[in-house]
Amino acid sequence: MATEYCDEKLKVIFLPFLSTSHIIPMVDIARLFAMHDVDVTIITTPAAAKLFQGSTNRDSSRGRSIRTHTVKFPASQVGLPDGVETFNVNTPLDMISKIGKGLSLLQGEFEQLFEDLKADCIVTDMFYPWTADAAAKLGIPRLMFLGGSYLAHSAQHSLKKYGPHKDMQSDTHKFAFPDLPHHLEMTRLQLPDWLREPNGYTYLMDMIRDSEKKSYCSLFDTFYDLEGTYQEHYKTATGTRTWSLGPVSLWVNQDASDKAARGHAKEEEEEEEGWLKWLNSKPEKSVLYVSFGSMSKFPSSQLVEIAQALEESSHDFMWVVKKRDDGDGFLEEFEKRVKASNKGYVIWGWAPQLLILENSAIGGLVTHCGWNTIMESVNAGLPMATWPLFAEQFFNEKLVVDVQKIGVAVGAKEWRPWNDFGKEVVKKEDIGKAIALLMSSGEESAEMRRRAVALGSAAKRAIQVGGSSHNNMLELVQELKSLRLERIHGN
User: When you count CB atoms within 10 A of the terminal residue's CB, does the N or C end of the chain come out lower?
Assistant: First the structure.
């Protein structure tokens, strides 16, 4: 019996969190495991599955052992309409807690599935700290996926341990982070609210850190040439085992079909030809790409400043704009003008970002510093104008601007909750200055671009045979197989 067991593939279950920015990299990691001859099951709800089912179906047709197991979300039990089960930028405040409640109601069903599907290992999002105990009960390893950068998590650890921000007289005075590899400064206003003053989220983050200590290891979507210094620092500072497997998007999305559909429930062909035709008509490195990710939103006053800065800049641009129920008449007028002058291209809603960033016409981008976009920009070898808004984005900005020096800060000064407009409005003059520096032909800009291109090459090397992430992946799978054999022979 033991011999039959040994011939079977390693069975790994993935449990992503129900938010687009967490689902996308975690599913890419699941697909990466399937590429390495692991039997993969992704457990999620029907609405979340739509975001990635096309990608996993293609992997399946390539002969990889990967499938989705959907669990009905208890919408009616928590007072939600059918199909509302993921967090996104438009989720109303009163629905956020209901989705959270629905997830906690599913916990028992998830735990039963870990057992029924005979998992050898579970990989879960950091927002499911209870899975550390669930895995321990089954005697199998739990790996935790931590979104964001090693630098961000190292900075948070430094703040929790040393509290340098607590002595500041003012929210706008800068303080330095103790015990980090680089001298980095921030203000209290740029810190997440849960780090400034304890709240419910602080308690959740403490639970996440405790669950990390109980886990076999944590996984990051990053690579050694980008963050090796902070990876080593994080391991030492927290005493946890950790593996970087990135850039996962670059690794698993190598076909145009994968790139076009990443993170999108595609029901019909978008007007791809329009944006592609427009970009292909532009000179190399001449277009600025502007996008603030799947979870960001701005008040009209801020959209006006962005629109004016783009129109007044001397560079062509492509801007991804959220569709809004209340309508923004001035944006429609703006779109007509820039279309007529051929200076700009506006994409409403979702954009095939991987395909856009690899187009030779793109010269740089304005980003909210969400980790998925930073990794995609690094893969494409592009410099960034950084405009952090929420979550760990102000920490990620430090990596881009101060450590790797592949970006210029727009000058955002205030952290805000992801579902809030915040009070700050960044002026068109500041946006314009950052764009000018990013896209100009001056020495400073050229140096920034050179470093970005070098990191893009390093990203490609990391996932090739003998590269740092490639070696990490092989070692990790081998370790998990050994643990499985020990468990079988121990029984």
Answer: N
**Residue 22 known to be catalytic:** yes
pLDDT tens-digit readout, 95-133:
989 999 999 999 999 999 999 999 999 999 999 999 999
Strands 185-187 and 174-176: antiparallel
CA distances (Å), 321 to each of 290, 297, 335, 347, 399, in order? Answer: 9, 9, 11, 6, 26
Question: Is 125 among the catalytic positions?
Answer: yes
**Cβ-based neighbours of 310, under 8 Å, separated by 6 or more:** 288, 290, 317, 319, 338, 344, 431, 435
pLDDT band at 1 (very low <50, low <70, confident <90, very high): very low
Of 39, 59, 125, 316, catalytic: 125
- Selected catalytic residue, list 22, 153, 233, 368: 22
SS3 62: coil
Domains of the chain as residue ranges with CATH: 2-171+203-251+463-490 (3.40.50.2000), 270-460 (3.40.50.2000)
Report the C-alpha gap between 403 and 227 in whole angstroms.
9
Distance spanning both ends of the chain, measured CA to CA: 12
pTM of the shown model: 0.95
Cβ 304 vs Cβ 330: under 8 Å: yes
**What pLDDT, in 10s, does the model give residues 167-208?**
898 999 999 999 999 999 999 999 999 999 999 999 999 999
Rounded Cα distance between 451 and 442, Å, is 15
